[in-house]
Amino acid sequence: MAGPARVRRLTDQEGQKLQQIMRRGSTSSVRYRRAMMLLASAGGNRVPVIAPLVQADEDTVHDVIHRFNEIGLACLAPQRAGGRPRLLSREDEDFVIRTATTGPTRLGQPFTRWSIRKLAAYLRKVHGRVIRIGREALRCLLRRRGITFQRTKTWKESPDPDRDAKLDRIEQVLDRFPDRVFAFDEFGPLGIRPTAGSCWAKQGKPNRLPATYRRTHGVTYFHGCYSVGDDRLWGVNRRRKGTANTLAALKSIRAARLDGAPIYIILDNLSAHTGADIRRWAKRNKVELCFTPTYASWANPIEAHFGPLRQFTLANSHHRSHPAQTQALHRYLRCRNTNARHPDVLTAQRKERARVRSEKGIRWGGRPLNTAA
């Protein structure tokens, strides 16, 4: 007659390993409970005593003890079954991903984007395939394959035939003559209305601005001028764009360089910038106009400075008139130019330049250059 089930004599390594599991715990509750069974049995406890100690059935304790006697500590690892058979093959999953990343209208559906429910319903009706997948399983599959729900974006490709030549010239003057490079552009339209923004406030009690429906003040445009070498921004507000106002701004740029040396002004292709009067004036006054390509205003250095101008003078504001708005704008410009050479500001600029330059193969924020050739 066979005796009661009991573990064989433990080796030193086995005893130390089981004690380590018991003292430090284990990420697996199965390993912890099985180690407890083995130590209890090694301490002379019988199976009827061990079973309530670990809250397990006596047959389970018997099985663990016999498995240990056969294969040692390998019995601690849970022997899990394969689970439910896969309902989708790898090819089916690839088909689901292709469908999710294809516009519904291209597949004959009367809507422009998929929801999880619509996508699952469409997959169940695909002719020639049986794709049965629940909404939660579909969501997990998309996440596992790196497909997320995102906003679409728009862009414009420049149709300018001289795009590369213009960008090359802008890069050249910025690298060789930074102290003689200036930038010009209009910022606006600037209306008189309460403009939402952001500020520090008590949680749940944001600052509020009144709504407005009657806007009788018209608009103005800030004609901005920027010196790349001095990092100085200035300008004036005008009621409209036009050749005369552009020429006045360009003359202020020419006056900023008193030694009469040739200068370079970067500006876009607005019709008010390309008139014959402006070209004749530029030729007489040693000014080279470096035009940005069509739909490529981001190549103008002044564009980066209009963002802070909007954020710190227009956002979260309620100007009563254009003169009040202009005064606020020029107060910010004076503060900005006074602190343009502050060490903290210069450090932030150097870090940003280093970050941009470290992006190998990226030109002017565009697509990677084709280096295969």
Protein architecture, described:
With 373 residues, this protein is α/β, with parallel strands linked by helices. Helix content is 43%, strand content 10%. The protein has 13 helices and 5 strands. A 5-stranded mixed beta sheet has the order 3-2-1-4-5, with helices on both faces. The model is unreliable at 359-369 (pLDDT under 50).
Please render the helix and strand layout as text.
Layout: H1 12-24, H2 29-42, H3 47-54, H4 58-71, H5 90-100, H6 116-124, H7 135-144, H8 163-176, E1 181-191, E2 219-227, E3 232-238, H9 243-255, E4 263-267, H10 276-284, E5 287-291, H11 303-314, H12 322-338, H13 343-357
Parallel strand pairs: 1-4, 4-5
Antiparallel strand pairs: 1-2, 2-3
Helix pairs in contact: 1-2, 2-3, 2-4, 3-4, 11-12
Features:
373 residues, alpha/beta, five-stranded mixed beta sheet, 13 helices, 43% helix, 10% strand, elongated
